[in-house]
């Protein structure tokens, strides 16, 4: 047995045709064909050691990010979640008539001078939500363009919505709805939800055929799905 800096669980599957690794926060599972030898499994894990360790470290870092609550007040220096990271907010006076958000390596809220002298945290929060909805639409459209052509999964329309209990949906006429809150999650999580709904254009249920179609686009979809299950309730709290 190789001396590895992590433990792993082996699950033999009748359906598995090759050895593969599924990494979820704090857990490594090796899925192997029934006839795969223990030595072959150990060698495969050893070959993937660096990738496994890096993936575990990334998941641990992202787990800490989403253990935080939304700011109680949107003011200079607070952290704003975006694409799985936290970015500081800077507040600057402006001649504009309403709050405008800009983003590079930080969020900048340009606040009308008339608001500077009084409470303006709620105005900044609403402006951030507007900005994130617009940005979500751009990212979702890009992801649709990336994945739709492979299996001709073209939606009739794409809408960004505020939803209290769903991350996405695909209507009977193939209209795709995506929850804007996903823009605060790591990019691969938003991609998973977009692909999930695109696959419903072809398969309207969650059968084995559906998940096989998802796996064609995202072989590691289970890890992305697990992240959403673990952190989704906090993400739903929004800004």
Please characterize this protein's 3D structure.
- The termini are far apart.
- It is built from seven helices and ten strands.
- Helix 4 (121-147) packs across helix 5 and helix 5 (187-199) packs across helix 7 (221-235).
- Strands 4-5-7-6 form a four-stranded mixed beta sheet. A three-stranded mixed beta sheet has the order 1-3-2, with helices on both faces. A three-stranded mixed beta sheet has the order 8-10-9, covered by helices on one side.
- The model has no long low-confidence stretch (mean pLDDT 90).
- The protein has two domains: 9-65, no CATH class; 79-235, Metalloproteases ("zincins"), catalytic domain (Zincin-like), CATH 3.30.2010.10.
- The radius of gyration is 21 Å and the shape is flat.
- It has helices at 38-47, 49-65, 113-116, 121-147, 187-199, 208-217, 221-235; strands spanning 9-13, 20-24, 27-33, 79-82, 85-94, 100-103, 107-112, 157-161, 168-170, 175-179.
- It has 239 residues and is α/β, with parallel strands linked by helices.
As residue ranges, the low-confidence spans are none
Q: Strand percentage, roughly?
A: 15-25%
Task: Give, in order, the helices and strands.
Answer: EEEHHEEEEHHEEEHHH
How much is the average pLDDT? 90
Can you tell me the CATH topology of the largest domain?
Zincin-like
- Mind telling me the C-alpha Rg? 21 Å
Short characterization:
40% of the residues lie in helices and 23% in strands.
């Amino acid at each position: 047995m190789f001396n590895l800096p992590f433990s792993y669980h082996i699950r033999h599957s009748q359906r598995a045709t090759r050895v593969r690794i599924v990494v979820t926060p704090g857990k490594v599972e090796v899925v192997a064909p029934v006839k795969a030898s223990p030595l072959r499994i150990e060698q495969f894990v050893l070959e993937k050691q660096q990738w496994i360790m890096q993936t575990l470290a990334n998941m641990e870092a992202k787990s800490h990010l989403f253990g935080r609550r939304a700011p109680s007040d949107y003011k200079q220096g607070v952290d704003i979640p975006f694409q799985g990271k936290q970015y500081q907010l800077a507040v600057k006076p402006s001649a504009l008539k309403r709050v405008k958000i800009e983003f590079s390596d930080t969020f900048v809220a340009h606040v009308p001078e008339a608001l500077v002298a009084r409470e303006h945290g709620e105005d900044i929060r609403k402006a951030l939500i507007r900005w994130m909805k617009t940005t979500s639409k751009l990212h979702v459209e890009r992801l649709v363009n990336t994945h739709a052509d492979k299996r001709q999964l073209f939606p009739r329309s794409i809408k960004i919505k505020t939803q209290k209990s769903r991350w996405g949906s695909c209507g009977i006429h193939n209209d795709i709805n995506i929850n804007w809150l996903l823009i605060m999650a790591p990019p691969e999580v938003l991609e998973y939800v977009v692909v999930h709904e695109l696959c419903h254009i072809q398969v309207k249920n969650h059968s084995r055929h559906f998940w096989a179609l998802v796996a064609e686009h995202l072989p590691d979809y289970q890890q992305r799905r697990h992240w959403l299950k673990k952190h989704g309730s906090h993400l739903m709290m929004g800004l």
